[in-house]
Write a structure and sequence with these properties.
79 residues; alpha+beta; three-stranded mixed sheet; 56% helix
Length: 79
């Protein structure tokens, strides 16, 4: 992982942003990581994975023994 200082980011933001497209960049202040910069493709993949994990957890926690048929629910909702 590339580590850059906040000063480097201020000096050459376009280059740092370009590098973040391939792999996250750690932004450091006084040798301590303060943030990570990730490209849009990486970010969107992370969000999609998070959403998938949330959906899987919701399905695992669902009590399907109390399920109703689609037709009953649609009729109740007036669909």
């Amino acid at each position: 992982m590339l580590n850059v200082s906040i000063s480097d980011l201020k000096t050459n933001p376009a280059s740092i942003i370009l590098q973040s497209a391939e792999y996250p960049v750690a932004i450091q202040k006084r040798s301590k990581t303060q943030a990570y910069l990730v490209g849009i493709d990486i970010f969107e993949k992370l969000v999609a994975q998070l959403e998938d994990d949330i959906d899987k957890k919701a399905i695992e926690q669902t009590d399907l023994s109390t399920a109703r048929s689609y037709e009953d629910v649609a009729r109740e909702l007036g669909l």
